[in-house]
């Protein structure tokens, strides 16, 4: 007796299985007791990651075959509850059943069932394919036309290509599209009026099929390809322009997604797979930005090790071709993204024509490298948060900074600027530059806090300048580390004493002045000054350096002075400044820790006694660059003199202490006196009584004033 073998469609549940299972045989007719072979195959499908699966850990499985009456297995590799797992490196698995019919059966079915990897006889199994047979010859369908019955319906889900669906008339209410990049389930929606976009909606034979999905829309569904060559601008912009697409997903491309420029719309969430690269074409116009956000709200761009980059070498002029431009935006978060090789800035935060600030912007774990102007510009913002981000190798046009905080106009804002754990490296300009002159004479209140800044190798670690009038507010650097800077670790240049307070708390400067200036001002670690040709307010200053540490660890030391305060232009004084309790001054010339010129209202303390000096066995002459808070003679073995040599009015006060029984003598210049104890010019004062001390202040060009005196100091006869 002959038994005919044929394949029919497989039953399936409402969720898709990432593995296509099939059971088949090459036999078309077999005799009773004639052995034949049945093949079982498992193929891993290219299923989108947001597809709902039948089982958790759906790439692993156990199989069971329900055998019909009259069939006996005689061999093969299959056994009930056989276990397997597929992956990219193992996309298929094969099993065989050898057996025979021992009785003549009029009809029956071999049912192929699958369950999860830990299944046993008590677990739930799902039928994934079947092999039917009957007494008469039947039609054998190929595996490509296998159908999976939907639970609770009498319709089927065919596996089809997009072109196949468009070219046939099918009764199925759901289909699974198999196209690379566009795979997924589509369901017929008779009430839909949506246009055919070839991605979310397909119209064929008057029927609309809509993609069944949850979560973000995959850019590959819209034909976006990451081959490193195709211009995806039009396809991506079409997605961004659609109000019905709020969440967009970029899978990691084979090479990169190429674009010219994109305009982001409000209420978009963009997620990029780890390692994704989006690359510009290098064709931006002088005022075009690669990713533009103008007057938009509620934008999120997130990834891990994601890179946006342009073709900087093609931009030899201009400075506005930014990677990310945020103009008048609200509620924008960018996380885990690099912005490299632009013709302008990596990131730009500023005003639009209708909103004069960007608000609630967060840059989290971002980076910017090798941009033409700078890594990040903050031009106008309220509540701007930058956390654990890196800005490096800015070069091409000024200011060449890692971070530039600088308004363009007096009607902009710098409020609630919080930069935490920033790293800047090897920028042709400063690591961080702050230029706020546009706010002078306005009611703007500057509020900037920079915490744990670490710069290595930029021209300056931090540079504050161009404030030539009254400005309210506070700029705070908390616990920065500035090292290997070409010039100073910190520099405040032409910064008005009436401008907002600059507080530098617990700074550390290491091995600065790489350029090797021998000038006490320009070779200093921390500098407050006005250059010779600068104009501006009457006085510079309002900079306060608290608990600083300065180290020069090089075999050839280059830091000339730890601190320098001077108005080189001589237009005014350095006013309203502080130097509080230096902690470490390592590897410096002990005679050149501090360079002072004309100072007014200067606060100084030295509880760690880093500015205390034992004159020992040498006579000393005070100069601009040889300031100490306290001089004493603790180890002197004879009379020692200190010449008060031509220092200017308003030079900071100095204390002289007698710490052993030797004479300590203070000698003014021939034209100076020491008031009130020595009214005659050129007369020295001296003491050899242990515990005696005197504090002097240069109050006028030719007069020292006694501020405090303990014990008797004898005046030269």
Q: Which properties best describe this structure?
A:
Immunoglobulin-like; single chain; Pectin_lyase_fold/virulence; 17-stranded parallel beta sheet; 717 residues; 5 domains; disordered N terminus; Pectate Lyase C-like; mainly beta
What does this structure look like?
This protein is mostly beta strands and 717 residues long. The protein has five domains: 19-151, Sandwich (Immunoglobulin-like); 159-211, no CATH class; 227-428, 3 Solenoid (Pectate Lyase C-like), CATH 2.160.20.10; 457-606, no CATH class; 620-716, Jelly Rolls. 2% of the residues lie in helices and 46% in strands. It has two helices and 65 strands. The protein has a 17-stranded parallel beta sheet that branches. A twelve-stranded parallel beta sheet has the order 21-24-26-28-31-34-37-40-43-46-50-53. The radius of gyration is 40 Å and the shape is elongated.
Write the layout of secondary structure elements.
Blueprint: E1 2-7, E2 10-12, E3 19-24, E4 29-31, E5 36-44, E6 60-66, E7 71-75, E8 82-85, E9 92-101, E10 107-115, E11 126-134, E12 147-150, E13 156-160, H1 162-167, E14 174-177, E15 184-188, E16 201-204, E17 207-211, E18 217-218, H2 233-241, E19 247-250, E20 257-259, E21 262-263, E22 268-272, E23 277-280, E24 291-294, E25 297-309, E26 324-327, E27 330-340, E28 345-350, E29 358-364, E30 367-369, E31 374-378, E32 381-387, E33 390-392, E34 403-405, E35 414-420, E36 423-425, E37 432-435, E38 445-451, E39 454-456, E40 462-467, E41 472-478, E42 481-483, E43 490-495, E44 501-505, E45 508-510, E46 524-530, E47 540-541, E48 543-546, E49 549-551, E50 561-567, E51 574-580, E52 584-586, E53 594-596, E54 599-605, E55 612-614, E56 620-621, E57 630-632, E58 640-644, E59 651-657, E60 664-668, E61 673-675, E62 685-687, E63 693-700, E64 703-710, E65 714-715
Parallel strand pairs: 2-12, 13-14, 18-19, 19-22, 20-23, 21-24, 22-25, 23-25, 24-26, 25-27, 26-28, 27-29, 28-31, 29-32, 30-33, 31-34, 32-35, 33-36, 34-37, 35-38, 36-39, 37-40, 38-41, 39-42, 40-43, 41-44, 42-45, 43-46, 44-48, 45-49, 46-50, 47-51, 48-51, 49-52, 50-53, 51-54, 55-57, 56-58, 57-59, 58-60, ...
Antiparallel strand pairs: 1-4, 1-11, 3-5, 5-9, 6-8, 6-10, 7-9, 10-11, 12-13, 14-15, 15-17, 16-17, 59-63, 60-62, 62-65, 63-64
């Amino acid at each position: 007796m002959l038994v005919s073998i044929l394949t029919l469609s497989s039953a399936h549940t409402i969720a898709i299985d990432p593995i296509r299972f099939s059971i088949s045989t090459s036999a078309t007719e077999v005799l009773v007791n004639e052995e034949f072979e049945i093949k079982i195959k498992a193929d891993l499908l290219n299923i989108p990651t947001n597809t709902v699966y039948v089982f958790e850990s759906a790439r692993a499985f156990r199989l069971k075959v329900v055998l019909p009456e009259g069939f006996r297995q005689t061999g093969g590799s299959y056994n009930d509850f056989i276990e397997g797992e597929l992956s990219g490196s193992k996309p298929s698995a094969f099993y065989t059943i050898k057996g025979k019919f021992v009785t003549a059966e009029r009809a029956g079915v071999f049912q192929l069932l699958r369950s999860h990897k830990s299944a046993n006889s008590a677990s739930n199994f799902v039928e994934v394919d079947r092999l039917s047979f009957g007494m008469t010859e039947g039609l054998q369908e190929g595996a490509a036309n296998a159908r999976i019955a939907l639970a609770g319906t009498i319709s089927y889900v065919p596996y089809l290509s997009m072109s196949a669906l468009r070219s046939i008339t099918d009764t199925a209410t759901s289909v699974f599209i198999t196209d690379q990049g566009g795979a997924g389930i589509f369901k017929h929606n008779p009430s839909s009026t949506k246009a055919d976009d070839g991605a979310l909606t397909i119209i064929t034979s008057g029927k609309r099929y809509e993609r069944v999905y949850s979560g973000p829309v995959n850019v590959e569904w819209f034909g976006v390809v990451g081959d490193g060559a195709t211009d995806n601008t039009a396809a991506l912009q079409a997605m961004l322009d659609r109000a019905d697409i709020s969440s967009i997903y970029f899978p990691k491309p084979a090479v990169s997604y190429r674009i010219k420029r994109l305009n982001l719309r409000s209420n978009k969430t963009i997620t990029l797979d780890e390692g994704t690269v989006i690359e510009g074409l290098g064709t931006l116009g002088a005022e075009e930005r690669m990713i533009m956000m103008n007057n938009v709200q509620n934008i999120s761009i997130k990834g891990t090790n994601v890179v946006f980059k342009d073709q900087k070498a093609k931009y030899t002029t201009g400075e506005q071709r930014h990677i990310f431009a945020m103009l008048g935006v609200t509620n924008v978060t960018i996380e885990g993204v690099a912005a490299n090789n632009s013709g302008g800035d990596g990131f730009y935060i500023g005003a639009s024509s209708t909103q004069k600030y960007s608000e609630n912007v967060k840059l989290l774990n971002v980076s910017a490298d090798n941009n033409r102007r700078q890594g990040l510009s903050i031009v106008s913002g309220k509540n701007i948060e930058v956390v654990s981000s890196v800005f490096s190798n800015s070069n091409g046009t000024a200011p060449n900074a890692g971070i530039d905080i600088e308004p363009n106009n007096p009607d902009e804002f710098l409020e609630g600027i919080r930069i935490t754990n920033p790293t800047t490296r090897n920028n042709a300009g400063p690591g961080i530059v702050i230029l706020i002159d546009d706010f002078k004479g306005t009611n703007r209140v500057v509020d900037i806090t920079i915490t744990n800044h670490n710069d290595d190798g930029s021209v300056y670690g931090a540079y504050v300048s161009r404030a030539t009038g009254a400005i309210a507010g506070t700029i705070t650097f908390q616990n920065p580390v500035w090292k290997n800077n070409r010039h100073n670790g910190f520099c405040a240049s032409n910064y008005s004493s009436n401008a907002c307070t600059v507080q530098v708390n617990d700074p550390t400067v290491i091995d600065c002045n790489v350029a090797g200036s021998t000038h006490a001002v320009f070779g200093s670690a921390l500098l407050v000054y006005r250059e010779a040709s600068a104009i501006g307010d009457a006085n510079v200053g309002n900079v306060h350096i608290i608990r600083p540490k300065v180290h020069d660890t090089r075999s050839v030391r280059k830091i000339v002075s730890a601190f320098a305060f001077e108005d080189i232009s001589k237009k005014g004084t350095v006013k309203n400044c502080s130097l509080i309790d230096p902690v470490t001054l390592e590897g410096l010339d002990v005679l050149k820790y501090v360079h002072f010129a004309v100072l007014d209202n200067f606060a100084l303390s030295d509880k760690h006694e880093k500015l205390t000096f034992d004159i020992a066995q040498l006579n000393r002459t005070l100069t601009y660059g040889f300031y100490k808070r306290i001089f004493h003679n603790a180890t002197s073995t004879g009379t020692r003199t200190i010449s008060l040599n031509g220092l200017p009015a308003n030079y900071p006060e100095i204390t002289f202490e007698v710490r052993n029984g030797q004479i300590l003598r203070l000698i003014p210049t021939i034209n100076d006196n020491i008031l009130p104890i020595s009214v005659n010019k050129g007369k020295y004062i001296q003491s050899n009584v242990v515990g005696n001390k005197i504090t002097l202040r240069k109050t006028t060009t030719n007069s020292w004033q006694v501020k405090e005196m303990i014990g008797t100091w004898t005046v030269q006869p």
